C-alpha cells in the first residue's frame, strides 16, 4: 500500500522537526478511506490547517452532511468553495479564517 503524507498549507518548515517543508494547498482524497472513519480523518486533517490556510478535499459524493458537521464544530471559521462537482468526484477547498 502506498502512503502519502498530508503537509500543512503555507511555507517554511513545520514543527515536527523532520526537515521537510510545506508548499501549496494539501489535498486529502477520502475516496479510499473507509466510511466509518472518513469524517474523523477530515476533522483531523482540518485541525492541522493554520489560520489562513486551505485544504482541498476530494470526496466520492457531495459531502453536505460533513460540511454541516464542520460548520457546527468550527463555528464559522472555515469557508467552503466547490472546485469540481461530480459526477465521479467532488473537490472542495476548505479555508480556515
Q: Report the span from N to C terminus.
A: 35 Å
Helix-strand string: EHEHEE
Rg, Cα atoms, Å: 13 Å
Assign a percent range to the helix content: 10-25%
Chain-averaged pLDDT: 86
The tally of beta strands, per DSSP, is 4
Total of DSSP H or I helical runs spanning 4+ residues: 2
What percentage of the residues does DSSP assign to strands (E)? 15-25%
Structural class: alpha+beta
Oligomer: single chain
Query: Largest sheet, if any?
Result: 4 strands, mixed
Shape: globular
Organism: Fodinibacter luteus
Region (Disordered): 1-21
Domain DUF2249: 27-96
Pfam families: DUF2249
Describe the protein.
It is a single chain. A hairpin with a 4-residue loop joins strand 3 (78-85) and strand 4 (90-96). The radius of gyration is 13 Å and the shape is globular. The longest helix has 13 residues, at 35-47. The protein has helices at residues 35-47, 64-74; strands at 27-29, 54-59, 78-85, 90-96. It is built from 2 helices and 4 strands, in the order βαβαββ. It has a 4-stranded mixed β-sheet, with helices on one face.
Amino acid at each position: 500500500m502506498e502512503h502519502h503524507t498530508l503537509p500543512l498549507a503555507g511555507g517554511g518548515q513545520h514543527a515536527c522537526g523532520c526537515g521537510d517543508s510545506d508548499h501549496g494547498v494539501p489535498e486529502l482524497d477520502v475516496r479510499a478511506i473507509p466510511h466509518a472513519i472518513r469524517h474523523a480523518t477530515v476533522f483531523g486533517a482540518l485541525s492541522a490547517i493554520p489560520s489562513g490556510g486551505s485544504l482541498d478535499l476530494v470526496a466520492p459524493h457531495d459531502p453536505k452532511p460533513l460540511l454541516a458537521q464542520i460548520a457546527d464544530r468550527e463555528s464559522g471559521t472555515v469557508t467552503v468553495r466547490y472546485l469540481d462537482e461530480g459526477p465521479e468526484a467532488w473537490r472542495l477547498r476548505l479555508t480556515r479564517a
